[in-house]
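Re: weekly structure request thread

Next one in the queue (94 aa):
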Amino acid sequence: MALLAVLRRMGRADLTSHGFRPTFRDWAGETTHFRSEVIEAALAHGIKERAEAAYARDDLFDGRTKLMETWARYANAGPAKQNVVELAASKKAV
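Done, posted below.
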């Protein structure tokens, strides 16, 4: 809801936040070293296994903070230029 509110304040009703959470989850799981528990806590996901949840006392705040700082650096870095292939403009009139 926070991302949707930002888009509304930006006057971008033409955009949606759909897919943001799974994109973050995929990025964190595939490209970082953060534990799954930290990633799931950052997404505010609860622990489904009751016995495991009963012993989970830590809020993983330090890990979540570092994860979000890593995400901010990634999100602000812009496109990976090594993956961009520039195409020359065609000389033919279309």
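The helical segments are 2-9, 20-31, 36-42, 50-55, 61-76. The mean pLDDT is 81.
Next request, please.
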